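Explain this protein:
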Amino acid sequence: MTDDTLSRPTVHALLADGTTVCIRPVRRGDHDQVRGLYEEMSLENLRLRFFAASRRSAEMAADRACAEQPPGYRALLAETGGRVIGLAEYDRGGTGNTADIAIAVADGLHHRGVGTLLVEHLVSAARAEGITDFTADALSENHEVLKLFADLGLRTTRRFEGPEVRCTIALDQSDTYLAAVEERGRAADVVSLEPLLRPRTVAVVGAGRKPGSVGRAILHQLHAGRYTGRLFAVNPRASSILGVPCHPSVGALPTIPDLAVLAVPAAAVPDAAEECGKAGVRALLVVTAGLDAGQARALLESCRAYGMRLVGPNCLGVSNTDPELRLDATFAAGHPQPGTAGVAVQSGGVGIALLDGLSRLGIGVSSFASLGDKYDVSGNDMLQWWESDGHTDLALLHLESFGSPRAFSHTARRVTRRMPVLTVDAGRTEAGRRAAASHTAAAATRTMTRGALFTQAGITATRSCGELLEAAALLHSQPLPAGPRVAIVTNAGGAGVLAADACAEAGLQLPAPSPELIDDLLAALPAGAAVGNPVDATAAVTEEQLASCVERIMRSGAVDAVLVALVPTAVAAATGDDLVRALTHTPGRHTKPVVAIRLEQGLPVELLPAAEHTTIPSYAEPQAAARSLAHAARRAAWLARPAGTVPDLDDVETGRAHTFVEAYLDRHPDGGWLDPRECAELLGCYGIPQLAWAWADTEDDAVLAAERLRGADGRVVMKGHWPGLVHKTAEHAVHLDLRGDHQVRAAFRDLETRFAGLLQGVLIQPLADRGTELFAGVVQDQVFGPLVLFGLGGTATEVLADHAARLAPLTDHDVHDLITSPRCAPLLLGSNGARPVDLQGLEQLLLRLSRMASDLPQLAEADFNPVLATPGRVTVLDARIRLLPRRPQDPYLRRLR
C-alpha cells in the first residue's frame, strides 16, 4: 500500500436500506477477506465479474487488490460487521486521464446500493487525482452492473463488441450527478431514521425505581403518552417500573428493540451501547451528559460498528406525535400537542420553550429531536425526515454548530422550496476568527459566515426563540405576501404611528393610497377618518366599516399585506362591535396576509380563530408584527427567484493553478504568503485583471521600472514588500505620486532605510485613475468552505465594515446580491447623475475569485484591496494570497458525520 492510501480516512455511510457500512482503502491484511468475497460468489456471478467461472480468479483478485500498488491504482472496500461485502477498484495504467474500473458485490447483497456507494467514493478520489473518465468492460448480459453505471447520474456511453460492452463514464460533476447522489443519500437517510423516529419497540436502559431519575421520567412520558409500540425497562433490580415490564439486561428482553434510550451514568454508556449493538438494537437515544473523550469515542465506535443511528448524548430526547405512534421519549414536563411543525434543537431548554410555544399557538409538533452534542444525527438528517414524513409543513431549527454546512445548505435549498425552514441564529456575538492577518480574515466573522449560509439556502434566520415563534405563527397561518408593500389600518392614530415606524425599520414599504382608493375608503369609513398610510379609521369605526376598509384595500392591488393595529375602546364596547372579528371574517384574506396588532394583548403572539378553520396572527408589539411580515416577504422573494447557476468562465487554467500551488507547497511545506510575483502568476491562471506592475530589487531597477510604467502624467507608485506585511499604508510602506528619477530613488532609499532587514523589494505601478476603491476577498473556513467577501475598500475597509459575504461557489444571483448588499452599492450603480462602474467587470472579478477559491482548498486567504472600479474597467491594485497545505474534501460525498 502507498502512504497516500494508508493516510486516507475510514468513513461510514448508509446503504439504500439504511444499513451502515464502512468504506475504506484495501490493506495488505485484507487478503483473506477479499479472497473470501470472491470465493463465496456463485459460479455465475464469477463469470459475470471475470468473464470466466474460475475459482482461481478469487486468489488472483485478492493478490492484486492487497499488493503494493503502483501510482494510479486505488481499491476501496465496503464492510459491515467485520465482513467485506464489496470491492471497487480503478487503474489508470499510467499517467493518462482515463482509468479502468471494476466492481464486485457479495452474493445476496445486490440491490442494496453497495456497488453504487463504492463507485461514488471512487469517483471522488479519481477527480482529486485528475482522472476525467472511467472505462469498464462488461458482458452485455450483466444487466445489474450496466444499470448501476446508467443510474449513477454521470454521462455514460456504450460500445458493443460481440458479447461484451465497453462503457465510458465521464466524471464531470454536473447538477444531474449531484442530484442523483443527493436523492440516494436522502432515501437512505430517511430509512435509517425509521427505528429512531418510528420505533415499534422501545427499551429504556437505566430507568430508576424511585422518582427523580431522568430514565424514569422518560419511561413515564412514554407510558403516560400512550406509546402504541412495545415498551420495556432495563433494570436488574426490578421486575416492573410504572407498570412497564422490566428486564435485567438488553440481551434478556423478549424482543430486540428498535430504539434503546440510555439514561445511565457516563462511565456505563460505552458498555451499554456495546450491549445494545450486539443485541441488534438499531438506534440509540443517549440522554446522559458529561462523557469524556474516551467514552465518547467508544460510544460512536459501537454505533458505527453495529449500524445504530444515534441522537445525543446530552440531550432532552425525541418525540413523534403521529396518533398511530404517540412516541414521547423526552423528559419534558408535558407532551407536545400533535401538529405540523418539525423541531430540532441542540439545547434542551430551547427545545422545551419551542414545544410549549408551538403547542400554545395551536401549531403543534409533528416530530421533535433534541440533538444534544450531535455525534451522529444532525439538523440535516431531520430536514430530510420532515421532507419525507408526509406530516410536516414547517421546520424549526436551533443549531449551535454545523458538522457539514455545505451538505446542510444543499439539503436546505431543496427543503425550503417545499416548506418554510426557520432557525435561531445562535452565537451571533462570538468574536469568530479575529486573526488580524489580513483584511479578509478580520472581516470574516462566524456570524457573517452563518448569515451567508442561511441567506443562500433560503432559511428564515431569527434572533431569538420569541422571534422564531412570531415568524412561525405568520408563516403557518397566512399566505406569503407578493412583495414588501404594507397598508396599516388602525382605530388609534398613535398605534398606527408605532406600526409605521416598525414597518419602516423592518424594511417594508408603506405606499400612499391612490386617489381612487382614497375616495373608496372615505366612503366606507366614519366621518373624520384620515386616509393615508396608516389609515386612521378613528375610534368610531364599526365592525362592518373596518371589515369593508380592509377588504377594499386588499381588492385594490396597491399593497401586498394589511397590518391592522387595534386598541380596545369604550365606543366599540358600547355598540357591541368586535373589531377583531372584522379581521377574521374579512373576504379575500386568503389571498394576502392579514396581521393584527393588539397592544393590550398579554402574550407576545397568538393565533386568532377565523372562518373556515383558519387563523390570523396577532402580536402585542408592532415590531414583532413587522419583523414577521418582513421574514415572509423575504421568503416570497427567495421562492420567486429561479435557482441561480454558476456561470462558465473563459480563460481559466485550473490545471496550471494546481501545478503552481503544488510547486509552492513543495518549496514551503508549511505554506505562507505569496510574494507579488507569485500572486500575479496565480491570478493570471484565473484571468483576474491587475494594474500593470514591475518588481524591483534595487534602486536602479526601480528607476528602470518607473520609466517603463509611467503614464501620460509621468507619475508612479512605489510599495514596499516583505513577508507578513498587511497594512502597507499603516506601516508607511507606500509612496504615491512619484515624478522623475530623483523622487523614485529617494523613495526607494527611504523604504530601504526604514525597513532594513525586512524589505525584500518594491512594487512599481503607474498611478491609478480616480474611481471607487473596493474590497474583494476570500477566506477558507475549515467547516463552511470558502467565503467570498465584498464591500467598500481602501484604508477604511475595517473601520467602516461595509461588507457582504456569500459562500462559494457563487451563482449569478449570489454575485448580484454581493454587489447590491453593501451600503456603498449606490456608488457602484450610479448615483446623483454619476455613471455606474463596470458592473460586468465587477461580476467577473467576483466569479473568478469564487472559482479560484473553489478549485484550490489550499487557498487560505485572498485579499484584494483596493480594487479600483471605474465606468471603464475593474482592476486589482493590490493582492495578497496565503496558501496552506490542505487536502481537498468532497462536500457532496455520502458519509456519516
In short: The chain is about 35% helix and 25% strand. The domain at 192-314 is CATH 3.40.50.720 (Rossmann fold). Confidence is low (pLDDT under 50) at residues 1-7, 430-440. The chain has six domains: 11-173, 192-314, 315-472, 478-640, 642-690+768-887, 692-767.
